[in-house]
Specification:
Elements lengths: L1 H8 L3 E5 L4 E5 L1 E2 L5 E6 L4 E4 L7 E2 L10
Antiparallel strand pairs: 1-2, 1-6, 3-4, 4-5
């Protein structure tokens, strides 16, 4: 599904994981240029992407977002 959304809209996706859960999320930028993703969209938990090497980039290379 994420590959289709990337093809249609150009959205990029990462795979994240922590000690309790894992998932796939869309990479987004805020108005200051910081990258973030919704870990749990239903309860609006947002995580900022500090280290681009901690994720598996599914639809692009992380170098795309290096300023």
């Amino acid at each position: 599904m994420y590959k289709l959304l990337n093809k249609l809209f150009g959205w990029d996706y990462i795979q994240w994981s922590n000690f309790a859960d894992s998932g796939i999320a869309r990479v987004q930028k805020d108005f200051n240029g910081k990258l973030y993703y919704f870990r749990y969209r239903s309860i609006k938990v947002i995580d900022v992407i500090h280290d681009k090497d901690n994720f598996i980039w599914l639809t692009c290379e992380p170098i795309k977002y290096i300023n």
